[in-house]
């Protein structure tokens, strides 16, 4: 059986770290990249700010309450993109199989590396050292035989650390892992799982595929497989982006149109930032609504030409009014699809495993 060697590299507090690198006066201080206004959202928080409970996607007003001396900085996406390009050029010296997830993280398949040590663990360390010396930023890394485990591992020793999950260790590691640490299990899903007595991977493993699909839909198949160390997704370089989206799950359910409208404002701002980062345009806008009974509804509207930014709010209002919203809402999402991005052919090599 082919066993891959996958590295997940995740930059530490990327946007905030870039700002602190470029402006030494900000180093060691609690910093939020984003807005403080009523509609402002934190795009990234420095580790000094995180000590106060400030997190990305948090409304700026709440972040300011948690940390009164928090410094807000306007995002500079062109600068972040420039730094991201430098980092990716380092990745590409080791393998052509690089799958960026965003400006600050990527998967690398180094089963057969172009340079460096045969050990993926040593390659990850070398890449992190080069990012520090050549770019000036800290990165964390996870190493394993599939993308899911590499992603989980990269979070274990943050910031500025790395961890490896070997094939022989995977199942026992996952059995001990708290359920909220599983990549893809959000806060609300973790709460739902705990109602069934699922607190760790060991507990999750006791439930059948049929039970998980019944209570968690298609995601149940994913949960059933990952707790057994099964995740077959390949590292896809230059993957074709089909859509751009942003969403938020609420601590308390929303009742009525006006609270929903207010909640959609920061989600729309987040979506606009993501669209700006990749310089995309789309022809279709989609509103996603998850109700408190976990049923999901999507409403979409398309134009024959690319949607101008000034029409987003108008089209979202049309989608809201397509049909009455009669149930409490627990999640809202917005997405743009039918994008203008160029299409590149995906490919993946199949190679033999050596050692981690």
UniProtKB/TrEMBL annotation:
Any one Gene Ontology biological process term? DNA repair
The annotated site for Substrate discrimination falls at 15
| PROSITE patterns per the UniProt record, alphabetical | UMUC (PS50173)
Specify whether Cell cycle is a keyword of the entry.
no
Query: What Enzyme Commission number(s) appear in the record?
Result: 2.7.7.7
What domain of life does the UniProt record list for this protein's source? Bacteria
Cofactor(s) the protein needs: Mg(2+)
Q: Which residues form a coiled coil?
A: none
EC top class named in words: transferase
Q: Does the keyword Transmembrane apply?
A: no
List the catalysed reactions: DNA(n) + a 2'-deoxyribonucleoside 5'-triphosphate = DNA(n+1) + diphosphate
Q: Which UniProt keywords are given for this protein, alphabetically ordered?
A: Cytoplasm, DNA damage, DNA repair, DNA replication, DNA-binding, DNA-directed DNA polymerase, Magnesium, Metal-binding, Mutator protein, Nucleotidyltransferase, Transferase
Q: Which GO terms describe its cellular component?
A: cytosol
Q: Which residues bind Mg(2+) per the record?
A: 10, 104
> Which protein family is it in?
Belongs to the DNA polymerase type-Y family.
NCBIfam families, per the entry: PRK02406.1, PRK14133.1
Q: This protein is called what?
A: DNA polymerase IV
In its UniProt entry, the species of origin is given as Litoribacter ruber
